[in-house]
Amino acid sequence: MRRCNNRAALRERRLAEIAGVALRSDELARIRDRLGREPSAVELHAFDAQWSEHCSYKSSRHLLKKLPTSGTAVVLGPAEDSGILHLGEWKGERYGIVIAHESHNHPSQVVPFEGAATGIGGIVRDVLCMGAELIAVADPLRFGRIEDPHSHQRYVAQGVVDGISAYGNAIGVPNIAGDLYFDERFDDNCLVNVVAMGIVKESDVIHSYAPPGADGWDIVLVGKATDPSGFGGASFSSLTLDAQDEDSNKGAVQVPDPFLKSVIMRASYRVFRFLREQGLTVGFKDLGAGGIMGCSAEIVSAGGYGARIDLDAVNVAIEGMRPEVIAVGETQERLLWVVPPTVTPELLRIYNDEYTLPEIAYNARATRIGSVTAEKRYVLTHGGQSVMDVDIEFLTGSIRDELPFGELPARDVTSERPLVTGVQLDELIERVLAHPDVCSRAPLYRRYDSVVRGCTVIPRGAAGAGVLAPVPGSPLGVALAVAGNPRYSHINVRLAAEHAVYEAVRKVVATGARAIGLTDCLNFGNPRKVDHYSELVAAIDGLARASEHFHTPFVSGNVSLYNESAGGRAIPGSAIVACVGVLNDLATVVTMPLKSAGSVLYLIGAPQGALGGSVLLDVLGRSDEHLPRIDYETIAAQHDLMYEATQARLFRSARAIGNGGLLTALCEAAFATMRKGRAVVGAQIDDAFQWTHGTVGDLEACFGESGGFVVEVAADDVESFEGLADEVSGVYEIGVTIDRPMLVVDDQAFDLHRLQEIWSAPLREVYP
Amino acid sequence: MNRAVAINLKIPDNAAYTALVTLRRLGIHVMRVERSEIVRFANAPEPRTLAAAVEADESLYNPNKHRVTVLDDDAPRSGEVWIVQDDADRPVGWRLYSAPGVPAGPDVLAQAAERLLCNPAIERAIFSK
Amino acid sequence: MSKRIAVLVFPGTNSEDETTRLLRDCGGDAHLVHWSRAQTLPSYDAYVLPGGFAYEDRIRAGAIAAHDAAMDHVIAAAQEGKLVLGICNGAQILLEAGLVPGTGEIRRPTAAFTKNAPAPHFVCAHVHVKLRVDPTRSAMTAALPRDAVIPAWTANGEGRLAASAEHLHELEAGSHVAFVYAHEDGSVDDSASPNQSALGVAGLVNREGNVLALMPHPERDAWTFNHPDRRRGDAMLATSGGAVFFRSFVEALQRT
């Protein structure tokens, strides 16, 4: 701990402690120097928020510059609240897919329901504020050990899903993708990542900065009344504040209000229409970390302006809140507009009169709180006095923590010899299907509305990616998938990050879509610990490498640090990725369920001997440090084949291969055919040697997780498909589909009904 | 002895607020609404032990958002109505106040239950003895 | 002058867009009518209450919306014999408003769509509903074939019909049970229902047949691209599946 060896520093420390801020001595000194005086309490809180890791990305921003962020499909890269990718054209209009990705890990560990719900709330606002209509959400989740029904992990796992369900369902945005992993290193630090997707005409995009000519424009705050949650004393199930309310909510629980959000969304869509009709260009941004101060400072400084805001004009939940609480508190469900003063009355009318915000939640409304100024200062007034007056670029300018990191130690690579085990294949299949990372997630995703809005082509759980028809009347389609395997992170964080990109991309490709872009969330430990920080550096390298090779730039992302337990143990360094794909014509979409007996099954993707990180090794209680390689050139050719074949409508079904390998993928494709009154379609696979020729062992072929696809081709299309596949390496004919509910592997037959029950059962207990 | 515990939110309760607004819209002039989950215990230990037991159960109580009150009786408090759907379920408790610290009278409470808080087709309302 | 359909939007309604789009694709002149413009409702000829979470289902699903000014107009319209259709949250509102089954007083519900069972959680699943009454029982269903089986999605946490034993008996006796959950092949058994709804009820109709409360959403399996089982060569953007129900509704309106 640094010693304070001068009186000024001591004084600053004392002030900071009194104010309850976490600024370091060196940061306090910088502030005092720049201001030329002691900072006010409001200023202390403002810098504390703005320079916090969460707001400033001080430990990671310079690292993130390594990620590729441009490309032909990029309409807007990661500079604003969401990224935008080009979907296609319809009736002379260019449409963009708006996409954002965030985490809400720490709040979800403490109050799972509220933490996860407000995570959805926040990510939805990031998309909304680009002028887009919300069309989907996704939730990649990682929990600790949940076997014990009384464990905190079980409470978290259930509360998080309840929160995501309650919020997403109420606002009417379908959940079409997500995933779920369990690992003991998430026991004290769950990961709740959320992705939101929107649709916008590219000509209608609204930016997160005050546009040219905005000097003198109004700053209009919209949404929930600002309250002191996080600072104590908020409750408004009452029209007057009781003594009982004094001690309420001293913790930092942010309260979700999807009812209010639903109305705000629809009111905002109405505002978008108005702006379009008037041909106006304005600024719109959502409030997150740093509250009113953070949002208003950023929206104006990004345009080269300053701002002057009167905190007395803010709609508040209770009277008498201290100015720093109003300025920096993180009340949910709020957004900020920068508009010409002539527009303000209509804005207020839409939100307050037409959409009756004040009747939806206590003192919710749109209200003008200040002005954009040409002078580049950030000024807050309260009670007629100035309580903050700083150089805005000093406030919002990027700060940087160049922290030390090292190369991660190379692991010993064991040689690739075929796995040998005394456990029989039938038992292996059952153990793999019952594994927590493989078993059916239906009990979880049945809690999510996957089809609201009527645009769903492939709902959650029906394939590895969800697919929507987001423009009514148009054949354009969009696909969304997520990935990021913690079992791989244990072994090699860099390669695990590459695998996350590869997996998300191939799940999109399996539906017939072209992968066009990515988002990421980097969930890591303590950047001040060299080990943890080095993992972050390595993961970014891995993401960058894979992104380059797949020509899928990153357009949005998030970093969540300090995910470590009280004992200092970090989570598996988790780069979680979402991939967006587009379909020019929905007619070419490919679904997962096997379609009919008598088709030929192909494996696209050479099996490898490496089983490191695989579910198979996990169920055998073994480990190996040898992760599958990613051969980008070969994979590129395979993905081109997938695209050509889907364009030519040569696939009856397709499934990306992931956890549990080929046999798991086949089982899932067969399980999807098992509905009442329907004929089950099973599969019969040749003895693996027939297609591996002994290059890998049988178990590696059946359960290896090196990626790829299993596809179903009608007998009549075999010639066409094999013609396309001629020059592509890693394509193997492996068997046929059959009209019995069996999975047959060489000469062994397994009952699909039995396997389906084993696969379906485990999560039912957690999500009844 | 049978005891009841009321668990309510110490963070803002949106549902209670909307209930308040709706009751007022219906001409039932209450000033405050508190909503609780009522957990009833047969053969309960004495209040402090009971409260501790409830607070130790994460599925019932999270210190960041809940407040626990052990009731004097296994019955609604003054100004409170319990809404029960199936006897096996936990009642929802609605406590109404006409003024700060002043629980609503039985007429107001009965009106609120009849017009809004209780669906007689599937629920019944329990008032204090 | 074509007949106009009001698609009501309460605060928290979320399925209004696809419902309106489908009604139009089925030939209806459908318009969104926002809660702050409820006073325009009397000028419409038929009413659809779409799905969603009006008031976030606070207190009970549909309980608060049933008291909204918009519902005063819907109640009046229903009493005049105009067609009123409620889907999911809309169905819950109609029951809370006493319009369905309509054998009691206004705003004194006699039955409810309440918490699902066995587990009281939101369930989103593909289902089928079967027309359980004679198609002529309601103008809205008159264009459907006898025993029609219609695909839909259930997406709710409070979709289970509950009422006293005597009232359930009355519902049967009065032919109020318009739709029940069924399998794709039309067979009906307990496993067809996603929520243990009493009598397997998916939809109820009032005595006059002009007010229908349907819990599942046929509009979410209403275009070919929604179907799980679309085939190569199907016209992806055409209406099909659940659209048949909306076409019947539109035709009924055009006949009035």
List keywords for this structure.
heterotrimer, B: 129 residues, alpha+beta, 3 helices, 7 strands, 32% strand, C: 256 residues, alpha/beta, Rossmann fold, 9-stranded mixed sheet, 11 strands, globular
Can you walk me through this structure?
- The complex is a heterotrimer of chains A (768), B (129) and C (256).
- Helices cover 34% and strands 22% of the residues of chain A.
- Chain A has 768 residues and is α+β, with helices and mostly antiparallel strands.
- Chain B is α+β, with helices and mostly antiparallel strands.
- Chain B is globular and about 40 Å long.
- Chain C is an alpha/beta fold.
- Chain C has a 9-stranded mixed sheet with strand order 2-1-3-4-11-10-9-6-7, sandwiched between helices. In chain C, strands 5-8 form a two-stranded antiparallel ribbon.
- In chain C, a hairpin with a 5-residue loop joins β10 (201-205) and β11.
- The longest helix of chain C is centred in the last third of the chain and has 13 residues, at 243-255.
- Chain C starts with a strand and ends with a helix.
- Chains A and C meet through α8 and α9 of A and α1 and β6 of C.
Could you provide a short overview of the structure?
The complex is a heterotrimer of chains A (768), B (129) and C (256). Chain A contains 26 helices and 26 strands.
Q: Using DSSP, what is the number of strands of chain C? A: 11
Radius of gyration of chain A: 27 Å
User: Taking all residues together, what is the mean pLDDT of chain A?
Assistant: 92
Give the CA-based shape of chain A.
Answer: globular
Quaternary state of this entry equals heterotrimer
Give a short account of the largest sheet of chain A. 7 strands, mixed
Through-space gap between termini of chain A: 50 Å
**Number of DSSP helices of chain C?**
5
Structure class of chain C = alpha/beta
C-alpha-based Rg of chain C, rounded: 17 Å
CATH H-level superfamily title of the domain at 590-768 in chain A: PurM-like C-terminal domain
Number of strand segments of chain A:
26
